[in-house]
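Per reviewer request, we include the raw input and output of the structure prediction for the construct analysed in the revised manuscript.
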Amino acid sequence: MARTPAIAGKTSDPLHHNPNLNPYFRFDNESKHIKDSVFSCRGIIINERFWNRIHKELMDLSKDSGPVILYQLGLNYGWEVGGQGKDLIKDPLAAVNFLEYYGLLAGWGRFEASELQLTQGRLAKPIVVKVFDNFFARAAGRSETGNPGCFFLSGLIAGVVDALFGAHHNCLEDKCISAGSECCEFVVARMTMD
């Protein structure tokens, strides 16, 4: 189970008390919009068909460069998410917990990062991020090649880690639900040229 972050002095999981309550996303009756309270912006709900169509069309249109484009899109968005998470929760380790929980409530999947070891505020060794019930892998369906294919999420994880720990990181997917694994598994390592 994902660890619940402490928010405004509360340490209990709000969903435990009311499973219909999502503290990060709510429908605003006045504006008639979904509000993302973490990032102070409007949200939308997308379903698997919508994501799968975007993913498939992008891969078909861009051929061999599709994985790179998706990774780069994820990397840039992850940088923003990680930066905002670090601004909200000053301790980078606590921000990891917070963002794991945000990803769960956003519907992306249940994230579990291995124990982080830091040296001077940077990752001292690679970490493993497991994503159970990964929306992006489930939406894509079964991999035709048997290879992992969560390029967007790989980039997003790298971007989040870059923003939280102030260095550049690679994120490679070792296992993927769409290729038959129980969960998607990503290995994140700091690039040596920092």
